[in-house]
Write a structure and sequence with these properties.
Length: about 425
């Protein structure tokens, strides 16, 4: 299989972890290109549930090696906690996990600043971030005062770069950092135990991937979050601070667009969102609660309840367009098993005007009313199915309607959290293409 990007087509938590895990079985490399410890990618292997935040999901496939690309912002204590728990669960990490030297670090002041930023906003304006320091870490990167993984290799450079960031923010906040005990010395001291552990992992990421590509190795580029959380293409300002879309794979790993074969959009069979911001198909009724319960929609990272609603084909068409999605993997089809009818949003209505485009203006997206097409439910269990031929006709119609409207090929249909609860559509002409 050609090298592929796997990205979220909605607001995150689509089930990227499960899909990357399946693809990773035949990959030489899995390289994560964006986000940080805000992500939570869950993979269920037998009785063990792995929640990966920073380590690429490929770590669970023993033949794959993993790269954390420089598009990621890296919280080192969080990384080592995650590595320790993987090792404890019997996963070999040593010599399999690498970090691009240009990867920016999330430092203690980023979390302090994020608390302040959220506190300054009114309830309606709060973004509802994961409080993992993501926004301030990317802000320091873009403002050219970030600290990078490679800085750890040179003690003087490390002190200089930490000082630049801390001095700047301490001055801007009238000594807030100092008052909280966050000084250059304390930050450097906290980083010290990480130096020896991180040093053997630091690599020239773009160079490493270039070699792998030239050798014809197979690479999965793992995204985080989702298209509608992208800093540019998402529902700004209710977004994360990175490029979650396909371009982020190039800039966040240092690969050329020609190194990408397939673009796989992971699509949950309905929609969820964590945090604030517009969500036209949100079901603020019993249906929403049923989806939440049936889909166990609680955040992997923060444990927050995910807001739930119906599939939004307008937003998905936008995701297909901005990412050039070639294939979709539909997840959690089983969660819809019990519904009599399943609404699917096919257009937006804004004050009597109908449109099939996501409005440029985020505030306007908050005002649109979804126009639904009602799809018949199948009222039969699909949970655990592995063969497309066993899908109830109404479930097949649902999936076909989604692919047909989006004009993309179906790669997989996931019918449960386990690895083998998956229908692989590749060889099945009936559902492959539209
Ligand atoms: P990610 O962030 O996109 O990797 O998604 P999360 O891991 O945050 O959330 C997806 C959740 O759904 C996880 O708990 C998965 O174990 C679970 N999951 C994935 N695919 C399926 C599926 O087809 N059916 C069900 N019921 N659960 C699934
Ligand atoms: P995965 O990779 C779902 C959301 C937060 C918040 C907004 C900004 O598991 O799909 P941030 O902490 O990034 O500044 O928060 O983005 N968010 C996610 N929602 N899945 C994620 O990751 C998310 N990562 C961030 O809830 O609304
Ligand atoms: Mg998640």
């Amino acid at each position: 299989m050609s090298n592929c990007v796997v990205l979220g087509a909605q607001w995150g938590d689509e089930g990227k972890g499960k899909i990357v895990d399946l693809l990773a079985k035949s990959a030489d490399w899995v390289a994560r290109y964006a986000g940080g410890a805000n992500a939570g990618h869950t993979v269920k292997v037998g009785d063990t549930r792995f929640a990966l935040h920073l380590v690429p999901t490929g770590i669970l496939s023993s033949q794959a090696r993993c790269l954390i690309g420089h598009g990621v912002v890296l919280d080192l204590p969080a990384l080592f906690t995650e590595i320790d728990s993987l090792v404890k669960a019997g996963i070999k990490v040593e010599d399999r996990l690498f970090v691009a030297s240009a990867t920016h670090l999330v430092l203690p002041h980023h979390k302090l600043l994020e608390e302040q930023a959220e506190e300054c906003r009114s309830d309606a304006e709060k973004i509802g971030t994961t409080m993992r320091g993501i926004g301030p870490a990317y802000a320091d990167k873009i403002a050219r005062r970030g600290v990078r993984a490679g800085d750890l290799l040179d003690p003087d450079r490390l002190v200089r770069s930490v000082r630049q960031a801390i001095d700047y923010w301490d001055r801007i906040t009238n000594g807030l950092l100092t008052s909280k005990g966050c000084t250059t010395e304390s930050v450097v001291q906290q980083l010290q135990p990480c130096v020896a552990r991180l040093t053997p992992m630091i690599v020239d990421g773009p160079r490493l991937l270039d070699d792998a590509i030239r050798q014809g190795q197979s690479i999965v580029y793992e995204g985080a979050q989702g298209t509608l959380l992208d800093i540019d293409f998402g529902t700004y300002p209710y977004v994360t601070s990175s490029s979650t879309t396909v371009g982020g794979a190039c800039t966040g790993l240092g690969i050329p667009p020609s190194a990408i074969g397939r673009v796989i959009g992971v699509v949950k069979a309905y929609t969820t969102r964590v945090g604030n911001g517009p969500f036209p198909t949100e079901a603020l009724n019993d249906d929403g609660k049923r989806l939440q319960k049936g889909g166990n929609e609680f955040g992997t990272t923060t444990g927050r309840c995910r807001r739930c609603g119906w599939l939004d084909l307008v937003a998905l068409k936008y995701a297909v367009r901005v990412n050039g999605i070639t294939h979709v993997a539909i997840t959690k089809l089983d969660v819809l098993d019990e519904f009599d009818e399943i609404p699917v949003c096919v257009a937006y209505d804004h004050r009597g005007e109908r449109s099939t485009e996501v409005p440029l203006d985020g505030a306007r997206l908050g005002e649109v009313k979804p126009v639904y097409r009602m799809m018949p439910g199948w009222k039969q269990p699909t949970a655990g199915l592995t063969d497309c031929g066993d899908l109830p006709p109404a479930a097949k119609d649902y999936v076909k309607f989604v692919c047909g409207t989006l004009g993309v090929k179906m790669l997989m249909i996931s019918t449960g959290p386990e690895r083998d609860e998956t229908i692989i559509c590749g060889q099945n002409a009936e559902l492959v293409s539209v």
